[in-house]
Fold:
Amino acid sequence: MSRIPPKLRSMPRRKTPSAVYIQMHQLANERERLQEELKRLSDRTSEIQQRLHQLEVNLNKLEAEATQYNSLSESEPISLNNTPIQNHNYQSFVIEY
Structure:
């Protein structure tokens, strides 16, 4: 796993009390930012897991429906009615272009 590198400065920091407090503030801000990012990642992971579970349930339902249709079509073959149409009272019309 890669480590998040600290930010580098071009100029070294002075060793004064205010510089120490600034560095403490920067580190506290970075810690807060990383904690928020970790929370967002955790929330997103939960959302993805819930969606995957929902997809699995839907796939199982559809698979059950498909097997039900397959079993119905195998057990009851559809008979085609090949009787000719007896009534030929069609009206014709002309289409002009």
Remarks:
- Residues 83 and 89 are 17 Å apart (CA to CA).
- The chain has a mean pLDDT of 84.
